[in-house]
Amino acid sequence: MRATARVDRSLCQGAGLCEAMGPELFRIDEEGYSENSQRNITNEEKVLLLQDIADCCPTGAISVTVSEQD
Questions:
Q1: For the whole model, what pTM was predicted?
Q2: How many H helices and E strands in the chain?
Q3: Cα gap 58→13, rounded to integer Å
Q4: Where are the domains of the chain?
Q5: What is the SS3 assignment for 56?
Q6: Domain 2-65 falls under CATH 3.40.50.2000
Q7: Which of 6, 26, 33, 70 could form a disulfide with 18 if both were Cys (CB 3.0 to 4.6 A apart)?
């Protein structure tokens, strides 16, 4: 399993919930927007956490794409 996250900066309000839930996956940049700090997540626990974070984003700015690993 492989997952990638995308942050829509037009929706992000910099609430910081993503960084609080997964500091190894997200950070708030110098402009106050969330950005994902890891690409191509393959650890199953982190993939599940990534999906939980996306579900909890108050503005729906985070989308996750999951695919089967080759």
A1: 0.89
A2: 2, 4
A3: 9
A4: 2-65
A5: helix
A6: no
A7: 26
Rounded to whole angstroms, how far apart are CA atoms 67 and 33? Answer: 26
Q: Whole-angstrom Cα distance, residue 40 to residue 4?
A: 5
* Residue corresponding to tokens 């393959």: 42
With contact defined as beta carbons under 8 Å apart, do 32 and 12 qualify? no
C-alpha 37/C-alpha 28 separation (Å) is: 10
**CA distances (Å), origin 55, targets 7, 30, 35, 41, 70:** 13, 24, 16, 17, 26
Cα 9 to Cα 47: distance, rounded to the nearest angstrom: 21
* 40 closest CA partner among 50, 31, 29: 50
18-50 pLDDT, tens digit each: 999 999 999 999 999 999 988 889 999 999 999
